[in-house]
Amino acid sequence: MATSEGIQMAVGLDDARGRPSPEPLRLPPRAVLAGSVDGGAGKEAVPAAARGDRARAPGTETAYSVSLSVPASPSGLHLAQLGACASVRSDGGDAVRVAPVPAEATPEPDARQHAEATAEAPPQLLKQARFNSQLTLTIRTEEPPLQRMRTVSRSDSTRDRRFDQFKTFSGRLERQLSNLRGVPQDPAEVEPADSKISEEETDDDEVPTADRYFAALEGPELETLRPTEVPALPEDETWPFLLRFPISAFGMCLGVSSQAMLWKALQSEPATAFLRVSPDVNHALWWVSVALMALVSSIYLLKVVFYFEAVRREFYHPIRVNFFFAPWIACLFLVKGLPRPVWMIHHVVWYVLMAPIFCLDLKIYGQWMSGGDRRLSKMANPTNHLAVVGNFVGALLGARMGLREAPIFFFAVGLAHYVVLFVTLYQRLPTNVQLPKDLHPVFFLFVAAPSVASMAWARLCGEFNYGAKIAYFISLFLYMSLVVRINFFRGVRFSLAWWAYTFPMTSAAIATTLYASAVTTVLTRALAVGLSGIASVTVTGVLVATMYHAFVRRDLFPNDVPIAITQRPRAKFSKILAHLRSSGTDVKELVFSVSRHGGSDTSSESPSPMARGRGGAEP
Q1: DSSP notation for 211-276
Q2: Is-contact 317 213, C-beta < 8 A?
Q3: What is the distance between the alpha carbons of residues 273 and 262, in angstroms, rounded to a whole number?
Q4: Is the pLDDT of residue 547 over 90?
Q5: How far apart are CA 562 and CA 569, in angstroms?
């Protein structure tokens, strides 16, 4: 009948039984394929594709298949009453339109007709038209496998945006710059709604306050996330290396560069001249220190460039901020341990290295004095000694270079704040938390400040007088009081905190060498040699352990959780329950008590549900 013939003409079949013709119908670009019959007249229309066939350019075709399914209908299917059509839009915006052909008769039951046609460009939008008569039109692309793979990769690939909040040049900034240049956005790069919500929760212009650090982290070093907190970054996978590289890594530079100072002192001091130390030892250690300093500085500069938000969070961390003194102290050690006379170095070098320390002093000491959430009584920690040692090292180097007034200024500033810090750390307020075992090495920082202060005062006065001896004896007593407590340092797992052993031990050894030159006896010489040997063995052992954990076990830099806290507390209920169970709380009775008292309007004077769960009171 006319209906089946019209359909065959439209889709390119050779008979009404649904067998595909050997030659598929070719659809030229910018053409519309349409089949229509004037209602009731039985007049067939010629497809529009035939009129534009000669305008097709050869070699610009991509095949796709068209499947048209017409179900059986016992009462007859009137295609003339269907206004259905399907369209495929190519890259150029042209539409290939396929319309059903009206008819006066129904097709055979369960007839499925297939055809293949070609278009100029691959379709980007595929639509399946469904009508009241359940006429189905399906269009499938016949792209080559490589081209299809590229299309899928473009549409399915999504960029990991979880770390964008810490990146200097995040995806959001790139999209904003693209919009300003008028570059259209790729649909695959459009941010989903949930990622925007997560960024609103964690990515603010302001870093967390000091109170937020204390609320989200625990321990005196504020390095451990509380059990009820949820970090802004995933916990179950390894973060990018730059995000895991902390500012405390400069402690390695302090330990190695101080060894260059020690062996230079053993070579030049009269008390240790009998050792006949070769200058090559100082040269080798100095170059190793320079290489290590260059490596660590380069890595951290990359972190500043690519993850500036993480660096900013470290700077505002109440404890981590003290480690920003470490790079400049290490540079002062390198200048002091240079294998040439220090007084031959230009004074500009000293001023350049002391300028950042002076700026940090203004910030840190101002916060200690002004009170608030960053007052010293709240943040007192052995790492605060780094904020004091820099002034003494600067005074020591300046005095050796021939400067006078500026080194005395820094010595006075450091001495005043060291006395305040020493008293605050010794009294250990009830609000202070006991140091965990794996952070006990930082107690050796107590030895560093008085040791360097004694050397600085000796160089400022020109002799190892009573003031220098008082400071030296204080450091020697603190050193011995820590050494005799061997059990205090047993069972400590390795971490970067172990480098806190190296720099104070080396400083005490150098101070002992200067004291032995002023008071030359067998005991002082033996003490100088013994402390120098202990310091060198300690630095060597810690350096080997660091390389083993960095390159063999690869666990030296775990995820840096302190920088990943959220602006506002977000706790998972499961973590809260786990924390309650670990604290011995009966969770079932707690929930029962909450449900029992949650709907009461009057205030109850009975104990809290937490006290009920612990059996502290009776109902």
Answers
A1: HHHHHHEETTTT-EE-TT---SS-SSSPPPHHHH--GGGGHHHHHHHHHHHHHHHHHH-GGGGGG-
A2: yes
A3: 13
A4: yes
A5: 14
- What does the buried/exposed string (b/e) look like for 448-474 if buried means 16 or more CB atoms within 10 Å of the residue's CB? bbbbbbbbbbbbbeeebeeebbebbeb
Whole-number pLDDT of residue 433: 62
Interhelix angle 405-427/445-461, nearest 10 degrees = 150
Going by DSSP bridges, is the β-strand pair 111-119/62-70 parallel, antiparallel, or unpaired? Answer: antiparallel
Distance of CA 524 to the CA centre of its chain: 49
Give CA 263 to chain center in angstroms. Answer: 39
| Whole-number percent of the chain with pLDDT over 70 | 57
Walk me through the domains of the chain, giving residue ranges and CATH numbers.
241-563 (1.50.10.150)
**For residues 215 and 69, which has the higher predicted lDDT (pLDDT)?**
215
12: left (phi over 0), alpha (psi -120 to 50) or beta: left
- Name the 3-class secondary structure at 111: strand
Whether the Cβ atoms of residue 316 and residue 207 lie closer than 8 Å to each other: yes
CB neighbourhood size of 330 (10 A): 25
Structure-block tokens of residue 565: 């806290």
* Share in percent of the chain as helix, strand, coil (round to 5): 60, 5, 35
pLDDT in tens, 103-136: 444 444 444 444 344 444 444 444 444 444 455 5
Helix (H, G, I), strand (E, B) or coil at 66: strand
Residue-level pLDDT at 436: 64
